């Protein structure tokens, strides 16, 4: 895991997630930001991929992301004002990477959050579109009650995935409430 000079766990985990994504995303790839929030991950992906599909259920998140993209002159992003659990309705072709930055929209109410069941449904629905060698990266924030529930739910659900996928968890063992990263890599086609 990378560390910044201030030891900020949130910045560390986001930087680490970006390193994982950057290692696999190329200029010709199509990728997904499943929770665009304020547009930071969307912008990061847009500078590395041919096309980004960015999703958020909150209109304020879509607006903030559009503003950030416009400020940087980015035009390879399609914004979808819809839940990530229905992204399979839009994504039909192969994708190289999916980023989930879970929890609540920074700067907004903490009562509206992502949930384990809908995030799991989103992951399950997009896995068939993930290219061999592609990854799904989830940043999980367990410092609030719903985030803790979501983390436990995802840990259990992802542990049941078949061996065509490599599932890893990157966490700080001495900071149990620090955010962590779940990484799913598609190593080969599912044998089922």
Percent of sequence in beta strands: 15-25%
CATH class: Alpha Beta
Rounded mean pLDDT is: 86
Q: Which fold name corresponds to the CATH topology?
A: Rossmann fold
Shape: globular
Going by CATH, the homologous superfamily would be Vaccinia Virus protein VP39
Q: What's the β-strand tally?
A: 7
- Secondary-structure element order, N to C: HEHEHEEHEHEE
What gap, in angstroms, lies between the N and C termini? 34 Å
CATH architecture: 3-Layer(aba) Sandwich
Q: Which stretches are poorly predicted, pLDDT < 50 over at least 5 residues?
A: 1-7
Outline the secondary-structure elements.
Blueprint (H helix, E strand, L loop, with lengths): L8 H14 L7 E4 L6 H7 L4 E6 L2 H13 L5 E5 L13 E7 L14 H11 L3 E11 L4 H14 L6 E6 L9 E7 L6
Parallel strand pairs: 1-2, 1-4, 2-3, 4-5
Antiparallel strand pairs: 5-7, 6-7
Helix pairs in contact: 4-5
Write a structural description.
The protein is of the alpha/beta class. It has one domain (about 10-185): Vaccinia Virus protein VP39 (Rossmann fold), CATH 3.40.50. Helices cover about 30% and strands about 25% of the residues. It has helices spanning about 10-20, 40-45, 60-70, 115-125, 145-160, and strands at about 30-35, 50-55, 75-80, 95-100, 130-140, 165-170, 180-185. A 7-stranded mixed sheet has the order 3-2-1-4-5-7-6, with helices on both faces. Strand 4, helix 4 and strand 5 form a beta-alpha-beta unit. The radius of gyration is 15 Å and the shape is globular. The model is unreliable at about 1-5 (pLDDT under 50).
């Amino acid at each position: 895991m990378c560390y910044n000079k201030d030891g900020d766990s949130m910045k560390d985990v986001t930087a680490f997630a970006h390193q994982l994504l950057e290692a696999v995303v190329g200029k010709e790839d199509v990728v997904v930001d499943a929770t665009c929030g304020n547009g930071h991950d969307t912008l990061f992906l847009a500078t590395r991929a041919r096309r980004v599909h960015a999703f958020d259920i909150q209109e304020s998140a879509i607006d903030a992301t559009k503003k950030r993209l416009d400020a940087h002159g980015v035009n390879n992003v399609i914004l979808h004002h819809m839940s990530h659990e229905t992204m399979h309705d839009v994504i039909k072709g192969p994708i190289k990477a999916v980023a989930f930055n879970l929890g609540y929209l920074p700067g907004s109410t903490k009562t509206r959050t992502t949930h384990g069941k809908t995030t799991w449904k989103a992951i399950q629905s997009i896995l068939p579109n993930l290219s061999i060698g592609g990854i799904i990266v989830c940043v999980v924030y367990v410092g609030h009650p719903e985030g803790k529930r979501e983390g436990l739910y995802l840990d259990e659900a992802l542990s049941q995935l078949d061996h065509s996928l490599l599932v890893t968890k990157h966490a700080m063992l001495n900071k149990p409430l620090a955010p962590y990263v779940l990484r799913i890599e598609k190593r080969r086609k599912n044998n089922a």
